[in-house]
Amino acid sequence: MGISGFEPTFLVGLGAVRENHRTALAALGGRRLTGFSIVRFAEDGDWFADCPVVLDFDGVQVEICHWKLDELSIGWNSIDTRAAISDWESFELTPEWSSADERLEPFVGQELREVALLEWRPSSHDLAVGTIAVEFVFDAGRFHIANALDENSIHVGDAHPEFARHRLDRGARA
């Protein structure tokens, strides 16, 4: 994707994501969201949801990226959002990092209370069954970053009731 430092490791399923990231995600609790970055196109400002969503919690950077129907990569402190995005010759638009997003802006400066993994478990089978979203809970509300079938989506408020919620507590076992 031409993103400096982005080397995703995609995982599938609750067990794999929890095993690899439970401790680090839970450790974010008590930190403030001090900033975020998403990729937008310079020409029209549209969000390019294929690229990772980067959240900064007091200097600890978590990088979330969904891919394909069920894959999730969570990276840590690897993406340089100050560096220009390169190698996009096949695109007509110019991608660039942005810290503007009306969904995330209200959470900046807020202390993170809790992190949870959300597992899609619909009452009837669909292609997205088992996909994992990451939820961030603050006193002022919550948001989650989910798989929109091969790209990221950001949702503010309570998750759809067909998500099974798996809270990540500091010190809890997998």
What does this structure look like?
7% of the residues lie in helices and 40% in strands. It is mainly beta.
Features:
six-stranded antiparallel β-sheet, mainly beta, five-stranded antiparallel β-sheet, 174 residues
Set down the secondary structure blueprint:
Layout (H helix, E strand, L loop, with lengths): L9 E3 L1 H13 L6 E9 L11 E5 L2 E8 L3 E6 L18 E4 L13 E9 L11 E7 L2 E7 L4 E5 L6 E6 L6
Antiparallel strand pairs: 1-5, 2-3, 2-6, 3-4, 4-5, 7-8, 7-11, 8-9, 9-10
Instruction: Record the strand order, biggest sheet.
Output: 1-5-4-3-2-6
Strand content: 35-45%
Q: What ranges have pLDDT less than 50 throughout 5 or more consecutive residues? A: none
Principal-axis shape:
globular
Distance between the termini: 32 Å
Rg is 16 Å
The overall strand count is 11
Mean pLDDT: 92
Oligomer: single chain
Structure class: mainly beta
| Largest β sheet strand count, sense and barrel closure | 6 strands, antiparallel
Give a quick precis of the structure.
The protein is mostly beta strands and 174 residues long. It is built from one helix and eleven strands, in the order βαββββββββββ. The longest helix is centred in the N-terminal third of the chain and has 13 residues, at 14-26.
